[in-house]
Write a structure and sequence with these properties.
Length: 100
């Protein structure tokens, strides 16, 4: 049983990492020519946290996600749609996680 739980946790971590890497690519593309300093000041986020987001190493809070979308002058739903399209329709945080 312990091995099964460990496998589930590892799989969930892999899925989360895929999501974070996809988000990182999209926010880098949207940041384009906006300086990190200006963007971080605008959304009240430290440069170190932003750097972790851009490298795909940080899990994002909904409020931060919302502020980022607004800084890029896009709707949060549009930003989420980009992520969803990039991940593909078969992406799921629960896919095969709980089946034995």
């Amino acid at each position: 049983m312990c091995s099964y739980i460990r496998t589930i946790i590892e799989k969930m971590q892999e899925i989360k990492k895929e999501f974070q890497k996809t988000l990182a690519k999209i926010i880098k593309r949207h940041r384009n020519n906006i300086s990190m300093s200006r963007l971080c000041d605008e959304i009240d986020l430290s440069k170190s946290v932003w750097s972790e987001l851009e490298r795909g190493n940080k899990d994002i809070q909904l409020s931060t996600f919302w502020r980022i979308a607004e800084a890029f002058n896009i709707k949060p739903s549009d930003l989420l749609k980009e992520i969803e399209e990039s991940l593909g329709e078969n992406f799921s945080f629960l896919e095969n996680t709980f089946s034995k």
